[in-house]
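Input record (one chain):
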Amino acid sequence: MNTVRLDVGEDTGVAVVTLDRPGRLNAVDLAMARELSDVWRGLRFDDSVRAVVLTGSGERAFCTGIDRDAVVPQPSSPYMQDDPLLGVGPKANGLWKPVIAAVEGMACGGAFYLLGECEFVVAGAGATFFDPHTTYGMVSAYESMLMAQRMPYGEVARMVLMGGAERLSARRAHEVGLVSELTEDGRASAAAVDRAAVIAGYPAEAVQGSVRALWAAREAGLAQAFAQAPHLIALGNLPGARQAELFAARRPGFRTR
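The corresponding structure, as predicted from the sequence alone:
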């Protein structure tokens, strides 16, 4: 693998999956999308792994969503869409082992496909969360639907509608329930591994059954919402050239709350 690292602690039962494109702020290109899917599917068969930590390489970002240089041709119909990020999460690949996200730096846009399929999130104090879709003339569909399962409606709506002008601090994310634990900067991964090791020490069948039960409580609503997403995106997104213009003209200023 070139874009994802997998480290298995045989003594702890914990695997650490690291998004490894720090030079691109761990943005997901098509190669990373394939490798993530392969990693999750492979972990289903490794009985030595009983819990997983997902993190990003470097200090600047956990993940900044889809790489803007990735070329993804789309069908002309508003009812069909090819979205490589739909296959990057553990649940999308049938992995029912608990996954804990460890977030340092930025987590934005398509990062929510991953965070939305983790059991809980541990974040460093300097982590920030935001969704810039609307700023660039894009519909936030799957991202907002996943976050609506983890945060109060008003918080998700504000994050989505404020776009790139505002970022959710780790402190505020903890207050509204997106983040379950705050650490000092640089300590999120270590804390997540500690929590994962505790979980890995419990009987695997009970843990995995509990993960599956928790997801079952969410997936019916998500399936109904996801069914609306392709045509919402197709009808609401600006043409790619116009999106690129808005992206190039973006201003660096933002507020963090």
